[in-house]
Amino acid sequence: MEIRQLKYFVRTAETGSISGAAVELHMTQPALSRQLAELEKELGGALLQRNPRGVTLTTLGHVIKTHADTILAQVDRTPELVRLAAGSRSLIRLGAPPGLPHDWFRAAVQTVESAGLAVRFSLYEASSDEQSRLLRAGQIDLALLHTEPAEGINGQHLLTQPLGAAVRPTSPLSTRDVLGLFDLDGLTVMAHAAGEIRIQEVKLRSAAEAEGVRTHWVFRRFSHHSLLIADLADADAALTTEASAGLNFPGWKWVPLTARDAAGHSLQVETWAAWNAAASPEVRKVADLFRSTPVQVLDGPES
Question: Using an 8 Å Cβ cutoff, are 3 and 72 in contact?
C-alpha cells in the first residue's frame, strides 16, 4: 500500500466520482481505476460501490476513509514537525478539543514557558473520542479531553466550565444573570447534534422533561455558521459554554444555567489531561503545569 493510493482513494470518495477525481488528480480515469483496484485487492475488499451516479463508500470504505484521513493528516504535518523539532526543545504533540478556552490555554502555555521547560507544541484539534484514539496509537503525546480518560490511560482534572445558554440580545432573557429550566419553557433551543458537551445536554433535557418543561430542540453541529443556523431555525437560545458562545454566537449574551441533573449535580463541562503510561517526563511535567494554571481566565473564545 502506498500513500499516493490512499490519496487517490480519499479524493475519489470525497468527489463521489472516479472521473471527477481523475480530473482533479490530473490522471486518466483508467489509471485511477487501476490504482483503486490495486488498493482494494491489497485490503481484501471493495472500498467503493459503483453506481450510475458515481461512487459511494462501502462499510469497509468508511473505515478505511477515516483511517486514511488520519494518516494523510500526519503526512501533511511532517514538515511542521521537522521544523519544530529542529531546535533543542522537545516536541510535544498536543490534542485540543472544541470548547477549550483560548485564554486559559494561552495562560497554560505561558505557565510552561515560565517554568523554563524546554518544549514546543504542535497542536491537533480533535474531539475527545478522536484524541483518545490518537493517544492510544501514539500519534499525539498529550490529550485534553472533555471526557474522563478511559481505563489504562493516565489523567488528571484540569478545569471546569459551567453550561449556560447564549440568548439573543433582543430576548427578555438577555437581562437575566442566571437562568433556570422553566425559563426555557416554550422556547426553541439549539444544542449540539454531536460534540463535546453532548452528555451534559442529555442530562439537561432529561431534567427538563422530568419537570414538565416543554422545549423545542434544534440539534446542529456548532461551527462558524451557528449564528446563521440559529436565525433560520428561529432559535431563541443555544446551550453552550461561555467560551463557545463568544466564538459561535457573537453579539448574543451568555447566561449560566442553575439547572441540575437527576442526580442533583450541576451541569458543567470538565476538561482532563491524558497521557500514556510510557509518556516522557516532559509530557507529565506539562500536564502538572497545565493543572496549576488558574482557571478564572475562562472568558476567551474557544478553539
Answer: yes
What DSSP assignment string belongs to 184-237? GTT-EEEEESSSTTHHHHHHHHHHHHHTT---EEEEE--STTHHHHHHHTT-SE
Question: Could you give the angle at the alpha carbon of 199 between the alpha carbons of 144 and 157, nearest 5°?
Answer: 30
Pairing relation of β-strands 48-51 and 54-57? Answer: antiparallel
Contacts of residue 231, Cβ cutoff 8 Å, sequence gap at least 6: none
pTM of full prediction above 0.70: no
β-bridge partners, 188: 216
- Other CB atoms within a 10 A radius of the CB of residue 145 amount to 25
For residues 5 and 11, give the distance between their C-alpha atoms in angstroms, rounded to a whole number.
Answer: 10
* 94: its cell numbers: 498536543
Task: Pull the grid cell for residue 157.
Answer: 482534572
pLDDT along the chain (303 residues), means of 10: 88 90 90 92 90 89 86 72 65 87 91 91 86 87 90 90 90 92 89 60 72 82 84 91 88 88 72 92 94 66 38
pLDDT digits (tens, 9 = 90+) for 86-142: 666 788 999 998 778 888 999 999 999 999 998 889 888 888 888 988 898 888 999
- Around 250, how many Cα atoms within 13 Å sit in the side-chain half-sphere? 6
